[in-house]
Amino acid sequence: MLRPRDRNNAFEAAVQQHIEILKPEDQAIFQLHRLSAATIAEKSSLAPHLQDPGKDWPSRLLHVPTMTSMVLEMANGHALYGGQADPAYNILTYTWGRWARPVGSAIEVKGVSWKIPPVDPAHFSVDDFLQVIRRISEDTEFIWIDIACIDQENEMLKLDEIGRQAAIFDKAERTFIWLNHCQANELQMWVNEANHSYRVCKEYVPGESLAVDTGEWIKSALETASRLFLDPWFSSLWTLQEAYLRHDATLLSRDGTKVKYPESQFNRPTILHDLIGCYYQIYRTAEQLAREHLDSLDRQQQEDLQDLLRRVEKSGLSPLHDNNPVSIYGVACFRQTASPLDRIYGIMQIFGLNLGGSTHPTLESLEARLGEQLNVRSPVHAQLFVHLQPARHRSCWCLGQHVRVPETARWAVGRYGTTIRDKTPAENFCKILPGSAQGPRFEGFSCTFLALFDLWRKSSLHIYGRSDQVSATHLPLRWVQSVFLDNSPLTERQIPNSIRTLDQETSEQQGALSQALVNSFDNKLRVALLGKLNVQAQGLQTGTVDIWAGMLLLPQEEGSQKFWTRVGICLWELRQDWMMKKIWETSEYLLG
C-alpha cells in the first residue's frame, strides 16, 4: 500500500513520463502546475492505519471465555490483549442501533467503563446474542464486536475506532454476518431459491428468451428478494460498509446456524460473495428483460420486474460486485442510520478516510470534506459519477447522497479496483485541491467541448459509421465517446430528455447528445481533463486501452466572482498521438 509521499511521487513520475514522450513543441502544453507531495499529504485525511501500520490493531478485543473487553497494549511491535500477543480474532457484522433502548437487559461484559446498550428483545434477545457470540468464537478466544470494543459514551474514542474499521476488518481472521431476523430453514430456502434464479440467468443469452417462463422467473426472483432483504442487515448503512470490506463473510441465521451454498461441491457455508454474484447476475438479467422484452410482459409482470430491480439496487449487492466505492456510496442513500452524521461516518472507510475530529460537524460539512479528500487523492475517480438530483448550491463538484456511476465508468474503475484505495493504475492529469471558502480549485488542462468533439470526429477511432461491436483491439465502441450529464438546471432546458439518459448505448444517441451540447453552448462548455484509466481491453490477450476522462464545466457568476459549475462527465478512447493535438490549454478554475 502506497504512503501519501509515494503516491504523489508516482503521480509526478507518471505525468513526467507522459510529457517526455511528446515532441518538444508539444511538451509545454502538458506541463502541470505542481504542488509538493508534502502539501498533498498534509491535506489528505488518511485513516490512521494508512498513515501508521502500527495502528491497525483494534483498541479492544472481547475475550469470550471470560467475557472481558481487553485493552490493546503494544510491546516490541506486538499487540497484547491480556498478555496474549497478536491474537487471531473474528468479527460479527450485525445491526442494533435502531433498536437500542434506554433500559432493559444487555449482555454482561467485564472491563468496560460504559453501559452496554440494551436492545429491544423483539430484534434479538440477550440469549440470542450470547449464542451467536459463542458460535463465531468456536475457533478463537477473541472476537471484535462494536458494543464491547468501542466506548459507546466517549465520542472522541468512538470516532477514532470508527476511523479504523477498514484495518480492523482486514486483520480479522473470519467475519460473520448475523441475519438475526432469518430462521435457519428460511435462510437456507432463500439461498437455494436465489441460486436457482441465478442459474437461469447464467444460461440467458441477451436478445433471446429465458430457459423458463419469464413471468414465473420474475415472480420467483422477486418473492425471494422481498423476503431475504427484509432482514434489517440489508437496510443498515454500517453493514453496507462492512459488506464492502469483507465479501468473504459467512452468513448466519438467528440462532447462529451456517447455511450451505448449493453450488458448492464440498457443502461449504454460504458467504456474502455468493449472494453478491447471484444478485449481480439477476440484476443484469432483469435490466436486459426490461430493455428487450418489456412489451411482451403483462402489466403485473412489468411492475414486478421494476420492483425486483429496485429491491436489488437498494440491497447494495449488485454494486458490491463492481467493488467500486463510489458505486457503493451511490446506494448508501437507501440505507438507514440512527444519526444524520452517520451518513458519512458509517461509510467513509470504504475510501480509507477518517473524517472524525471536526468541531460541531454537520452533514453538509462532512460531505464537503469527503469530496475534498477524494479529489485530493484521485480527481479521476472522485469525479466519475453523475448527480441524479440537483446538487446543493456550488457543490456540483462534490460527491453527493444521490449519485450513480455510469456503467462505462463503473466497469473501468470497479473491475480493476480503484486508486482511492491504491489499487488501480490510473493517471491523474490534474489536481483538485481545497481552496478558499468559495470552493476548491482545478489545476490542469482544459479545452472547449466543441474542440474535443471535433477531435473525436476526426480521429481514426471515432464511432460514426461503425457498429457497436467488440473488435480485436478495442473496447465496445460506445466507450469511444460517452457523455453523461448531471441532473442540472443549467442543461435541463436545452437538452431533451430523450437523449440525456444515463447510459447511452449507441453511437447515434451519443452523437445526438454531443451535437446538442455543441449547439446549445458552443464555446462556453469546457472539458477539464481529469486523467486516464488504463483498462484491460476485451478481446486482447495483453495490453490496455487508455480511457480518458473529463469534467464538463459551464461558467457562472455571482456578483463579481466567476466560477465554473460541473454539469457532467465524459469518457473517450483516443490514440496518444491524437490526444496530443493542440486543443489543450493550461487552466485554473474555481469550482462551484
Q: What is this structure's SSE topology?
A:
Blueprint (H helix, E strand, L loop, with lengths): L3 H17 L3 H4 L9 H7 L4 H4 L8 E4 L4 E8 L2 E4 L2 E2 L3 E5 L32 H11 L5 E3 L1 H4 L5 H8 L2 H7 L2 E5 L5 H19 L11 H15 L8 H9 L4 E3 L19 H21 L6 H17 L1 H6 L2 H7 L10 H4 L17 H15 L1 H4 L3 E2 L15 E2 L2 H8 L11 E3 L2 E6 L2 E10 H10 L22 E5 L3 H4 L14 H15 L4 E11 L7 E15 L2 E13 L2 H4 L5 E6 L2
Parallel strand pairs: 5-6, 5-7, 7-8
Antiparallel strand pairs: 1-2, 1-6, 2-3, 3-4, 9-10, 11-15, 12-13, 13-15, 13-18, 14-17, 15-16, 16-17
Uncertain runs with pLDDT below 50, 5 residues or more? 1-15, 17-44, 46-51, 414-424, 461-479, 538-542
- What does the overall shape look like? globular
User: Structurally, how many domains make up the residues?
Assistant: 3
Note the gap between the termini: 33 Å
Average the pLDDT over all residues and give the rounded result. Answer: 84
Strand content: 15-25%
Number of strands: 18
Please give the order of strands in the largest beta sheet: 4-3-2-1-6-5-7-8
General description of the model:
An eight-stranded mixed β-sheet has the order 4-3-2-1-6-5-7-8, sandwiched between helices. Residues 1-15, 17-44, 46-51, 414-424, 461-479 and 538-542 have low confidence and may be disordered. Strand 3 and strand 4 form a beta hairpin. It is 37% helix and 18% strand. With 592 residues, the protein is an alpha+beta fold. It has three domains: 53-178, no CATH class; 184-232 and 273-323; 363-590, no CATH class. Helix 1 packs across helix 3 (37-43) and helix 9 (184-202) runs antiparallel to helix 10 (214-228). The two termini are 33 Å apart.
